[in-house]
Amino acid sequence: MKKTVLFLIGLISFTAVAQQPYYDDVNLTLSGIQLRDALATKVINTHSNSLSYSEIWDAIMITDVDPNNTNNVFLLYGWEDGSDGDVTNDLFRNKNNNGGNVGEWNREHTFANSLASPDLDSNTSNGPPYSDAHNLRPTDVQRNGQRGSRLFATGSGNSGTVGAFWYPGDATQGGPDWRGDVARIVMYMYIRYGNQCAPNLVADGTTNSVDSNMIDLLLEWNAADPVSPLEDARNTYHENISNATAQGNRNPFIDNPRLATQIWGGTPAEDRWGIYSGDTEAPTVPMNVMTSNETSNTIDISWTASTDNVGVTEYDVFVDGTFNQTVAGTTTTVSGLSASTTYAFTVLAKDAEGNTSAQSAAANGTTLAGGGSGNGNLYFSEYMEGSSFNKALEIANYTGATIDLNDPANMYTLKISTNGNAAWNSTYTFPAGAMIADGDVYVIANTGLAVCTGVVDDSDDTITGFNGNDAIGLFKNDVLIDILGTLGDGTTYASNTTLVRKPSISVPNTTYTASEWDTFASNTCTDLGRHTQTLSVDTFEATAFQIYPNPTHGDIVYINTKNNVQVTNVRIYDIAGKQVLTQANVTNELNVQGLQRGLYILQLQIGNQTVNKKLIKQ
């Protein structure tokens, strides 16, 4: 069963925000340094309550609370729901579980204390700038320590170190996007405390042409990651001085990210007030979201284009409520899915000013069972350690889909450990464009290979310079998924020998198991370049049916089963996952007269086995 975390803080408002009365005495027609200074005057003059560092605990327990569970607070840089056993990446934690110990949350100076010049606590730790509530966010204690005083810098994926720098994290791997939060906090600290908190002290990147203290990367992050409800809630709380731990001022770049563009230029950020772009109209909601071309780990989705008063620029695609990708057109392929699993797909539209539609109605899609490996991973299928340089490795693909071995999102590599070394010595990266079709293999050989040369896809002497006691690992995203030999063992397991994975083996194994392999004499390469896998019962049934016509314009669909196998039950589901038809003891005809035009999932059952097929009625 897959686990889904709905990252509420990654969701953005779907309607324009009216300009807050807080700015009524600010000349918002200014631009550049003049606008920066006008906003600085406003936030300084309205910072009427200087909170102590201890009062920040109480403020955070109100401003950063999880609306779905008011016992929790959201943790900056987190992304995971707490189910993986690693507390450092948790997205939320009990609000009373705070302090400085492992498993607790602490107060993170987003603009690090020691990076300011002078330090934020150089005057006093009992007031600003050290205890400015707009700068302090809750984080896991250990993750806070990992960030330390590292400068922010470009990266991708979830939060973490990038060399000597720190990346706050984006939504490309399913977690929340923290880039905008960080950028807007740094911008606030700059206008509130001036050169003491200049952005170039806390971020690495190109210097802005308007203001040498600004870093353009922060402007990019501000535009790329729209304001979240969490940021809005913090601003609303702190303006209201009747709140016991409110400080009286707001962060202008949360209220309207476009203010940063007006000051420093760069990619236009969302104009939440509509006073600079004149466009506050959101696009219409995408309609007719449909799924098709299911494999064991991918599903194609399409939808009807949205309309907008100016023009739609892109669409965000969500899987089970979590952001997956942004596309310019109205079709895309969602990859990295689990086999035999139902997912809900939704889409929202955006225009050039950052106006965003609501998410579409969900369309459900179910991945297939796959071609045999079940878990969607590749595996070693042949190993040849022959005379002289007759050495080769073969990798098989029975995932149900073509695999790009050099895909940055799902990167495969090989590693070797020589002569019983307890660590991997060398890494082989597949060349750009290296692909394996479903049911095919990929062969890497030594450049001195003298036999079966016509089946080699790539030559690499480092990875194929092995001896019979060298462990070799197949990795996916740097995680071991299959192995030859045993790391750190040094025992000779295959010298002057060819090993071929038995046809009954359909999944990789991170423990080398000799019984999974057939052994042949030295230099045997009869099977190199091809591999046979015995299909499981599930796989046999998944390929033993023919449904026609499909798409159908009529009322009858014919089901042809191999060897006339009896279908005990048929169920049809619409794209929302609702069962719309069921029929028992089907022969070879299925009446679909009552179905409207559209995409359906046809589920066939034989005994305790089920097979899903897509059905389109036109």
From TrEMBL:
PROSITE patterns, sorted: FN3 (PS50853)
Gene3D superfamilies (alphabetical): Immunoglobulins
Compositional bias ranges of the Polar residues kind: 114-128
Stretches the record annotates as Disordered: 114-156
Pfam families named among the record's database cross-references: Endonuclease_1, fn3, LTD, Por_Secre_tail
Keyword field: Hydrolase, Nuclease, Signal
SMART domains: FN3
Domain Fibronectin type-III: residue ranges: 285-370
Keyword NADP: no
InterPro entries found in the cross-reference section: Endonuclease-I, FN3_dom, FN3_sf, His-Me_finger_sf, Ig-like_fold, Lamin_tail_dom, Secre_tail
SUPFAM superfamilies: Fibronectin type III, His-Me finger endonucleases
Origin: domain of life: Bacteria
Signal sequence bounds: 1-18
GO MF annotation: an example: hydrolase activity
UniProt family annotation: Belongs to the EndA/NucM nuclease family.
Name this polypeptide is given: Fibronectin type-III domain-containing protein
